[in-house]
Amino acid sequence: MTRIVFSGGRVFTGSTAEPGDVVVEDGRIVDVGIGLDGDTVVDATGHTVLPGLFDCHVHFMFSGADLVRSLNTPFSLPFYEAIGNMKATLQCGITTVRDALGADLGVAEAVRRGLIQGPRMQIAVNMVSQTGGHNDDWMQCGAHISPPLHPGLPNTVADGPEELRKVVRTLVRHGADIIKIASSGGVMSPRSNPRHAHFRDEEIAMIVQEANAAGIAVMSHAMSGDGILTAVRNGVRSIEHGVFLTDEGVEEMIKHGTWLVPTLMAPRMVLDQAAAGVAISDVILDKAKSVVAQHFQAFQKAHQAGVKIAMGTDSGVGPHGDNLNELTLMVEYGMSPAEAIQATTTSAAELMRLGNELGELAPGKLADLVLVEGDAEQHVKAGTLKQAIRAVYQNGVPVI
């Protein structure tokens, strides 16, 4: 076994970066300290060494919010586009993700078997929604739009506990590592209101019960205050977006230990695309504009109160590869740079139940590492972290 030492850099320890070396053997970290040696030396002088980063909310099968483009895209093309989307994500130093809707078991297996290069991946397969909810793609003309269902992507629009029991079991059969639901309306769906709660207590309780029986957790797209509360009190593991989070919602999240994945970039990505000329309906555009200021206030409220936060972007709604802008937004709205990095490493690993293997530079952990030229915390604050990345490793092997 070759002993590789990353020497002379500053090692991010979970709360700060300190001078040190990292030694890797057989794909795992075996030592962290000062003055360590190895068979192969990677000179990290002048660099910050970070653990492999996480994004807890991506959509590799999506490449923007342009409905007209998607309607004119051949069915199989998004599978090939996903290869580039994964590469762009790896180039950000993100070595682990949750794909929150779209990627099926074949996409995940292609990465796991080494057929294509991409981050480690947990997949939701599809999002569970009530009729008329955030994943019901019925349009006023009577047509259903995208994504088209196929053998790897089952229909997940359902109502009532028993229908939902079967949907969750179907998703597990299809390879879901996480169950994603929509307990409120959303921005990108044609006929839902992000201020309205979706699903009742008995419905979400059934979803969580079935997910727990399969040994997996539930994540909930939840924007409305009531939608957040219903999800939290029935045992979901994470709230995605959390736009209209109330004081009561904060208290319940802390009480239940529920995570927040804020995706501060998400509405901005929609507005940026509209400004660039992408055809986005007035209904969706108005919803995106209406949530931006409230979104940031909710994030600040949650952070100040001590809600557990993990980084996620909703990339796929907008471009892949801009993921690290999320850290800069988190700092802009109250986190320290070190807290933002922690949300993207140790905290995210804990949320995804991968803390035993990933998320920090410590002996025994898998050797996912990112070399950042200069001070990573200053780059987070300045919005230049992506430009400063010089190397990314998975299992001790360079991937960029």
What is the element layout, followed by pairings?
Layout: E1 3-12, E2 17-25, E3 28-33, E4 40-43, E5 47-51, E6 53-58, H1 67-71, H2 77-90, E7 94-99, H3 105-112, E8 120-123, E9 127-128, H4 161-173, E10 178-182, H5 201-213, E11 217-222, H6 225-233, E12 238-241, H7 247-256, E13 259-261, H8 265-275, H9 282-305, E14 308-309, H10 325-332, H11 337-343, H12 346-351, E15 369-373, H13 376-382, H14 385-388, E16 389-394, E17 397-398
Parallel strand pairs: 1-4, 1-5, 6-7, 7-8, 9-10, 10-11, 11-12, 12-13, 13-14
Antiparallel strand pairs: 1-2, 2-3, 5-15, 15-16, 16-17
Helix pairs in contact: 4-5, 6-7, 8-9, 10-11, 11-13
Short précis:
By secondary structure, this protein is of the alpha/beta class. It is built from 14 helices and 17 strands. Strand 12 (238-241), helix 7 and strand 13 form a beta-alpha-beta unit.
What does this protein look like?
- The chain is α/β, with parallel strands linked by helices.
- The chain has helices at 67-71, 77-90, 105-112, 161-173, 201-213, 225-233, 247-256, 265-275, 282-305, 325-332, 337-343, 346-351, 376-382, 385-388; strands at residues 3-12, 17-25, 28-33, 40-43, 47-51, 53-58, 94-99, 120-123, 127-128, 178-182, 217-222, 238-241, 259-261, 308-309, 369-373, 389-394, 397-398.
- The strands form three sheets. Strands 1, 2, 3, 4, 5, 15, 16 and 17 form an eight-stranded mixed β-sheet that branches. Strands 9-10-11-12-13-14 form a six-stranded parallel β-sheet.
- Strand 10, helix 5 (201-213) and strand 11 form a beta-alpha-beta unit.
- Helix 8 runs antiparallel to helix 9.
- The protein is globular, with a radius of gyration of 21 Å.
- The model has no long low-confidence stretch (mean pLDDT 96).
